[in-house]
Amino acid sequence: MAIEEILTSRSKSHGEFCEVAKLHTELIECFKTYSINSWETDYVEAQMVALDMIFHKLARIGCGNNREIDHWRDIAGYATLVENELEKTWVKDNIEIQRINPNDIKDGLY
Fold first, then answer.
1. Which of 24, 26, 45, 46 is closest to 34 using CA atoms?
2. Does residue 99 have a pLDDT over 60?
3. How far does Cα 24 stand from its chain's mean position?
C-alpha cells in the first residue's frame, strides 16, 4: 500500500492530521493550565508520556472515528502502564516508610 493510501485510510479512522494536532495541543495546554500538579516537577517521565499519548488518542477520538476500538484500547493500555509503574513505586515507598528503627524496639515502641 502506498503512503498516500495509508494516509487516506488513517484520516478516516484517526481524523485529519492538522485537526488532531490542534486538539492534541489544546488538551495538553488545558491540562497544564488547570491541573494542580506541575507538569515539570510532579510527574515522572512515564506519566508525562502516557498523558501525552492519552491526549493524542482523545484527539483522534474527537476528530476521527469515535467508535474506533483501538483508540479506546490504547488509552486503557497507557493508563495500565502507568498504574503498573505506580504500583512498583508505591510498594517501594511503603516498604521504606515501614522500616523499623532499632532504637524504637529497645525503647518498647514495638
1. 26
2. no
3. 13
**Interval 17-58: pLDDT, tens:** 999 999 999 999 999 999 999 998 999 999 999 999 999 999
Handedness of CA 63, 70, 12, 57 (dihedral sign): positive
The phi, psi pair for 76, rounded to 5°, reads -60, -40
Set of cell numbers at residue 50: 502516557
Q: What is the reported pTM? A: 0.79
DSSP state of 106: H
Write out the three cell numbers for 42: 510532579
Please give the Cα distance from 31 to 66 (Å, whole number).
Answer: 21
The neighbour count for residue 12, using CB atoms within 10 Å, is: 11
Nearest alpha carbon to residue 28 among 58, 61, 71: 58
55 touches 102 (CB < 8 A):
no
For residues 8 and 15, the answer to whether their CB atoms sit within 8 Å is no
